[in-house]
Sequence to fold (196 residues):
Amino acid sequence: MHRPHRHPPPDGERERLHSASMTGRKEQRLVKRTIDATVDECVAVAIDIASYPDWAEGVASAEIIQINSDGLVRNAKFTAAAFGRVVSYELLYETQHLPHQISWTLVRGDIVQTISGSYGFSPSLDEPGQTDVIYQLEVELVIPVPGFVRRRAEDLLMRTALERFSTEVARRARVAAEKSEADFDFYTRGGSGSME
Fold:
């Protein structure tokens, strides 16, 4: 039986949401999207923790408090909105698997019991020049939240987070392209600008 060909969305991005059962009542939630950018362009946004308040949904502040010997983030403190509340927490980052993955786990938080997650990056096999990004997240508050409420909130949070991430990657790529074009015009004019 012939199946109609399914075209990708106009922006070249695909998104899928999965959940996998873990021990107890915890679940690992993940979203996958193909982004029209290189792995390096995606990684540059993921590791720029200090810029998260500028683009990440709900993040009010982000402060790097410790870096590794390679200059990448080790520990960072955040204030953010989650599940209708304002939460403060510190995360420990694992960056040794970059450029393939950056992950984080909770060090301490006020009303947060669990935060763990990761961004995974790999060149897309279906879309040359693009990157498959897998975003995983698990959040659990000290204050009890019904399971279905938590899952719906996580789904919305993750979809929004990856959408904002994709938008920021595209914005930076556009700025870099415009700068490159401007530099090219400058040097082809002999570095003296317009003579008009």
About this structure: Residues 57 and 160 are 7 Å apart (CA to CA). Residues 15-188 form a domain with the Alpha-D-Glucose-1,6-Bisphosphate; Chain A, domain 4 fold (CATH 3.30.530.20). The longest strand covers residues 112-123. The chain is about 30% helix and 40% strand.
